[in-house]
Amino acid sequence: MRIITGLYKGRRFDIPRSFKARPTTDFAKENIFNVLAGHIDLEGKQALDLFSGTGSITLELLSRGCDRVVSVEIDRDHHAFIKQCLAKIGAVNCLPLRADALRFVKSCRQKFDFIFADPPYALGELAAIPGMVFASGILSEGGVFVLEHGAKNDFSSDAHFIERREYGSVNFSIFKG
C-alpha cells in the first residue's frame, strides 16, 4: 500500500496477507483524487473515512493536508494496522475508531467536509448509504461524499449525485452536499 502524494508521498506499508480487506488500487486512488481536486481542496478540511479497511484512504487524506481525519473500521486487526501506520508517520490529527460504520453515521453529531466510504461490495445496506449520510446531516454544506462500490450499483437518480467514475472493477459515485 502506497501514499500517492502530499506530505507522506511514497511511503509504503506492507499489508498482512491474512487481511480480508484490500486497499483501493493505486491506479483507482490516484485517479479519483485527481477528479476530486476539481470538487474540493482537502487542505485544512475535516474528513471521515468509513469502512477504512487498511487505512489507505485515511493516510492519503492526512498526506493531502486534512486538518483532521476520523477513520472508522470494525475489524480488530485492521483497526490495529491503521493505528500502527499512523504511528509510523507520526500523525496526531487522526482519530481511528473501532466501530460499525453504519452505526457511527447514525449517531455522529460532527460535520465533515469530505466523507469517503468503501463498504464491502456485498453489504446488504450499500445502496442505502448515501441516504444515511445525507439524512444524518454529517456532511457539511458544499461538502463532498464519495462512495466506492461495484459495477451493479447506480446512484445517478440521487438528488446529491454529481458523477460516477469507473476504474476497472472499481466504481466511485460522487455526491455533493
Distinctive features:
177 residues, alpha/beta, 5 helices, globular
Structure notes:
With 177 residues, the protein is of the alpha/beta class. It has helices at residues 26-36, 56-63, 76-89, 101-107, 129-136; strands spanning 46-50, 68-73, 94-98, 112-117, 139-149, 161-167, 170-176. It has one domain: Rossmann fold, CATH 3.40.50.150. 37% of the residues are buried. Helix 3 links the parallel strand 2 (68-73) and strand 3 (94-98). 27% of the residues lie in helices and 27% in strands. Strands 3-2-1-4-5-7-6 form a 7-stranded mixed beta sheet, sandwiched between helices. One of its GO terms (biological process) is rRNA methylation.
Q: Quick recap of the structure?
A:
GO terms for molecular function: methyltransferase activity; nucleic acid binding. Keywords: Methyltransferase, Transferase. With 177 residues, the protein is of the alpha/beta class.
Radius of gyration: 15 Å
Helical content band: 25-40%
On the 0 to 100 scale, the average pLDDT is: 95
Poorly predicted runs of 5 or more residues: none
Percent strand: 25-35%
- Shape descriptor reads globular
SS class: alpha/beta
Report the total helices.
5
Sheet with most strands: 7 strands, mixed
H/E series: HEHEHEHEHEEE
Return the CATH topology: Rossmann fold
CATH class: Alpha Beta
The CATH fourth-level homologous superfamily: Vaccinia Virus protein VP39
What is the domain tally?
A: 1
* Order of the strands making up the biggest sheet: 3-2-1-4-5-7-6
Pfam families: Cons_hypoth95 (PF03602)
Keywords: Methyltransferase, Transferase
Protein name: RsmD family RNA methyltransferase
GO molecular function: methyltransferase activity; nucleic acid binding
